Amino acid sequence: MFYKDERLALFIDGANVYATAKALGFDIDWKLLKEEFMSKGKLLRILYYTAILEEEDYSPIKPLVDYLHYNGYSVVTKPAKKYVDSSGREKIKGNMDIELAVDAMELASKVDHMVIFTGAGDFRRLVESLQRQGVRVSVVSSIKSQPPMIADALRRQADTFIELDELRDAISKPLRSSA
């Protein structure tokens, strides 16, 4: 539930929301997402968090980061790290949880309602702390995806759970015609 006069801030765990939208079979139109939440209240900030592989000549995330910067999003990035796991497979690590949590705590006194786009259960304690400070917290993720992309403890802690699939019509990119 949203109130027209409340001050809103959106926090988007980029990797998590990308994986969730893909699991549901659609791409997010970031301009439409911004418009959708501007219509729900006084949108003060939209923060998008992602790690970037800096040594790559081309990273598919860089055009998105540029687009978001130019369209009113605050983009928080850090270098992703490559490593080899115990079975010899190359992995990439770029967790942005601390950055998101610190920013949310810093903004807590300036907003009435935070919307966090993630399903990561690690954020349950953040949500609980924000609620103790008087901030209403909605979490956007999916229980309809296979597998479900939200931790049950996070969904239960949130004041409101918003199913990403139910936002599909309002925020998804139109399908490209093959003409």
Provide the structure class: alpha/beta
Main pleated sheet: 6 strands, parallel
Give the spatial strand order of the biggest sheet.
3-2-1-6-7-8
Radius of gyration of CA atoms, rounded to a whole number? 16 Å
Q: Please bin the fraction of helical residues.
A: 25-40%
Give unreliable regions as ranges: none
Shape: globular
CATH C-level label: Alpha Beta
Element order: H for helix, E for strand: EHHEHEEEHEHEHEH
User: Average pLDDT value?
Assistant: 92
Number of domains: 1
The second-level CATH architecture is 3-Layer(aba) Sandwich
Ends: how far apart?
41 Å
Here the CATH topology equals Rossmann fold
How many separate helices? 7
Q: State the total count of DSSP E strands.
A: 8
What does this structure look like?
With 179 residues, the chain is α/β, with parallel strands linked by helices. The protein contains seven helices and eight strands. It has one domain: 3-Layer(aba) Sandwich (Rossmann fold). The strands form two sheets. Strands 3-2-1-6-7-8 form a six-stranded parallel β-sheet, sandwiched between helices. The protein has a two-stranded antiparallel sheet with strand order 4-5. 31% of the residues are buried. The mean pLDDT is 92.
Summed up, what is this model?
The protein has 179 residues and is of the alpha/beta class. The chain contains 7 helices and 8 strands. Strands 3-2-1-6-7-8 form a 6-stranded parallel β-sheet, sandwiched between helices. Strands 4-5 form a two-stranded antiparallel ribbon.
